[in-house]
Specification:
371 residues; 16 helices; 0% strand
Length: 371
């Protein structure tokens, strides 16, 4: 039997298993399907059940990831973003600022180790910790991050994402006395992703053809203007198309986006190869740790000084570090179901802006002589 076909079967099975566990068990719903799928794939890869490198992963990182970006961004309705409320948007802005400060600090501390790769590494990880791993791949490809650093950073990224989810699930209980209560009228719950809606054949055809057309157009525009990466064109065009009203009548956009995202997490998990950290050693873990924990200090420290609600800060932090799926896990785990819609929308906002900010940070680091 063809090895690629077998691998596709295993990856799809892992994706289905993670989604089923999330639907079936309360503990899995709190953790989130993406993290479960990532862990399952990492275990399989490190035990030798599936390979850690394959053309199949290249297809997922390339075409499927790009299509998932389109489908997820088609869910970003700027009207919903405006209705989030000032406190939610400011909390996410603070979380994003914390990530950028962490990436800058890590670059200053470890420039002597990573030298010219510092801007590429910092920009890719900043994109991951403002949007998600899908942004990490997009920015990493645009910046030509080396395979060695890509693999090691993916492993460190996954480890810190899991650690930070555990921290944000417990931190609000420890810090709640230092923060005021949230004004319930200051945020608006946005309808969650329609992952269970039935997909009509005509909607499926439109969504597939539309996403492919945007990908082809973005690639063509990149060839015409090479200075602007394909992922920037793809992000911009997807957000523009998402504002047309008829897009919201297409059934299955969220389902396709979440499926593509979770399939992407199987490839990320397969690339979580612990021995890959050896060549770059402790510095990679420390680089990533500095970003995440500086993010945390800025988010919760300034949040306390500004007297913002700790549950909202934790949600915004998790939406930035892990994306919409871990934001849902955060809201569920903290018994804050009214914040699930807010967390999903903040995570989608992160997807929308992370590519721009990650690439901009890399350029700034070059300008100040760190690249």
């Amino acid at each position: 039997m063809d090895e690629s076909l077998t691998l596709w079967g295993i990856l799809l099975t892992l994706t289905a298993l993670g989604l089923w566990l999330e639907h079936r068990f309360r503990w899995a719903a709190r953790v989130g399907s993406s993290l479960i799928i990532l862990i399952l794939a990492a275990i399989c890869a490190n035990l030798g059940v599936i390979p850690q490198q394959s053309p199949v992963y290249d297809t997922i990182y390339g075409t499927i990831t790009s299509l998932a970006i389109v489908w997820l961004l088609l869910l970003v309705n700027l009207q919903d973003v405006r209705r989030l409320g000032r406190s939610a948007l400011l909390a996410f802005a603070l979380a994003s600022f914390g990530t950028l400060m962490g990436a800058l600090l890590a670059s200053l501390l470890f420039h002597s180790r990573f030298l010219g790769d510092t801007p590429r590494l910092a920009g890719s990880l900043a994109a991951s910790y403002i949007g998600g791993s899908i942004n990490f791949v997009g920015v990493g490809r645009a910046l030509n991050l080396s395979d060695l650093l890509f693999s090691a950073a993916t492993t460190a990224d996954n480890l810190l994402t899991a650690v930070w989810l555990a921290i944000t699930l417990t931190l609000p209980s420890l810090l709640t006395r230092f923060y005021p209560s949230r004004d319930a009228g200051d945020t608006v719950t946005v309808v969650p992703l329609p992952t269970t809606s039935a997909i009509a054949p005509v909607d499926l055809a439109i969504l597939l053809s539309l996403a492919m057309a945007l990908l082809v157009l973005s690639t063509a525009l990149n060839q015409f203007l090479p200075s602007i990466p394909t992922v920037v064109w793809l992000t911009t065009l997807s957000l523009a198309v998402a504002q047309f009203k008829w897009i919201r009548y297409l059934r299955g956009t969220g389902a396709l986006g979440i499926f593509g995202l979770n399939l992407f997490f199987t490839a990320i998990g397969a690339g979580t190869h612990l021995p890959s950290l050896i060549p770059v050693g402790l510095e990679m873990i420390l680089f990533t740790t500095v970003i995440v924990f500086t993010h945390g200090v800025v988010t919760f420290g300034l949040g306390a000084l500004l007297k913002w609600d700790v549950e909202l800060l934790a949600l915004a932090s998790q939406a930035a570090i892990g994306g919409p799926t871990t934001a849902v896990a955060q809201a569920t785990g903290r018994h804050q179901p009214q914040l699930m819609g807010v967390g999903i929308t903040l995570g989608l906002v992160g997807y929308a802006i992370a590519n721009y900010l990650g690439l901009a940070l890399a350029q700034v680091l070059r300008w100040i002589g760190l690249g």
